[in-house]
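Cross-posting from the chemistry board since nobody answered there.

I work mostly on the small-molecule side, so proteins are not my area. We synthesized fe (ii) ion and want a rough idea of how it might sit in this target. Sequence and SMILES are below. Is it possible to get a predicted 3D structure of the two together?
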Amino acid sequence: MKILIVGDVFSKLGRSCFERNLKRIKESEKINFIVVNGENTSHGRGLNEGHYRWYLEQGVNVITLGNHSYSNKSIFKYIDEAPNLVRPYNFPDNSRGKGYATVNYNGISITVMQMIGQVFMTGEIASPFLKTKELLENVKSDIYICDFHGEATSEKIAYGYTFDGAIQIIYGTHTHVQTNDARILEGGSAYITDVGMTGPLEGVIGVRKDIILDRYMNNGVEKFSPQDEGKTQFNAIIVEINDATRKATKIQTIKIVE
Ligand SMILES: [Fe+2]
Ligand SMILES: [Fe+2]
């Protein structure tokens, strides 16, 4: 089975770039299952219901979120009834939405979870390590996939080693920059520290660069706005899972600049 995982899709350019490349890759690579990080889909912050449905129409199986889960307030209208939508599992217990989704694919159960890091991240966040242990004990599944949404490379690498062999695909999101460390770990898990983003190439991780440069140089206060012009980047991974052993056999990175 081939699983395609696409990193943080950012605003207008991210959506067009996603749609264009997904069509092509789905056919050429014969993809069976698709997971996308959608936390920046709607104007760079959050995911509205129209965009959530737009993902499903294109065959996406599960959409994960992140620290921007609730940035677009319209999510509260539909998050509790959206079966394919996952926010970080280690958010406070009373948080809206859910931290994992189990999907049946041709008789194989696939559980996609999301954890958010504690290092350099804000908010009330429980240990992603302890919460993952708890989830794995309570939710039985043939295949597990984890989107680790974190800033620190060290935390993600430590997490990868901790759950090597227990979670078939462990991948990072949130930094929006693809790392060059994709590999199969000793216990058989496919791992990458960050998949990278899908959207504008020319901004600063998606945001118009003049706004960010002005902040650093002149204490600028202009509100963040997406970079909506120029070249795009599509960043993703494809992981192959052996249907019989249910182990990851191959991880391949994709980076397309257009
Ligand atoms: Fe993001
Ligand atoms: Fe994020």
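Reply from a structural biologist on the board:
Welcome over. Reading the output above for you: The chain has five helices and 13 strands. The first strand starts at residue 2 and ends at 6. Happy to explain the token format if needed.
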